[in-house]
Write a structure and sequence with these properties.
The structure is a single chain. By secondary structure, the protein is an all-alpha fold. The chain contains seven helices and two strands; from the N terminus they run H-E-E-H-H-H-H-H-H. The chain is elongated, with a radius of gyration of 18 Å. The mean pLDDT is 88.
Length: 194
């Protein structure tokens, strides 16, 4: 959906994606034991990647910040919610730059590549966040590196699901939007008001 990022339609989709991202974490959350933090498996990262690809850099990033950051703020992760929001900014920047390099061609191959890139980027950002979280509680840097590495299993699972599910959800959403918009144009066409 490439429309004006300030249009009513774009703003509604941004809010809708923020809510879906929040719900995607809240509904399906599987905790995983870790040395650092309280990681869990969820679909918030996948939905954020889809939002970025579908809405563009700014609105997709805003949806991700509100959805993921809002979840953290309201569910016991407030102290580190700023780190989650920074992760969204990094993922949005990386995805948007690569998508721009692809001339925004959303072929199956490109979207699959972008799904994989989103997953790999999330592994890197989560590793860095885990180090910062460990340092915030007074751990030495050496222990923070090891603890962050040992705590990566949930992130790897989330990243694999992001790589697999992002292309599937992106194309399903794109097809559904075409059908809905076509029907909306028909129902809002002038011939119905004559």
């Amino acid at each position: 959906m490439r429309t004006d990022k300030n249009s009513l339609q774009a703003l509604i989709f941004t809010g809708l994606f923020a809510a879906i991202i929040y719900i995607g974490i809240w509904v399906l959350r599987i905790p995983v034991p870790a040395m650092v933090g309280r990681p869990f498996i969820h679909f918030g990262n996948t939905l954020t990647a889809v939002a970025i690809l579908y809405l563009g850099y700014r609105n997709g990033m805003i949806a991700g910040i509100i959805g993921l950051g809002g979840f953290d703020l309201l569910n016991g992760y407030a102290a580190t919610s700023w780190l989650t929001m920074l992760e969204v900014v990094v993922v949005a920047t990386v995805l948007s730059l690569i998508f721009k390099g692809m001339n925004y061609q959303d072929s199956k191959k490109n979207i699959i590549i972008l799904g994989i890139v989103a997953g790999v980027t999330k592994i890197f950002t989560t590793y860095c966040v885990s180090i910062v979280e460990a340092l915030m509680v007074g751990t030495s840097l050496q222990v923070a590196y090891v603890g962050a590495f040992v705590s990566l299993p949930a992130t790897v699972i989330n990243s694999i699901s992001t790589a697999i599910c992002t292309p599937i959800l992106y194309f399903a959403l794109k097809d559904a939007t075409k059908v809905i918009m076509k029907k909306a144009k028909y129902f809002l066409s002038p011939h119905l008001f004559q």
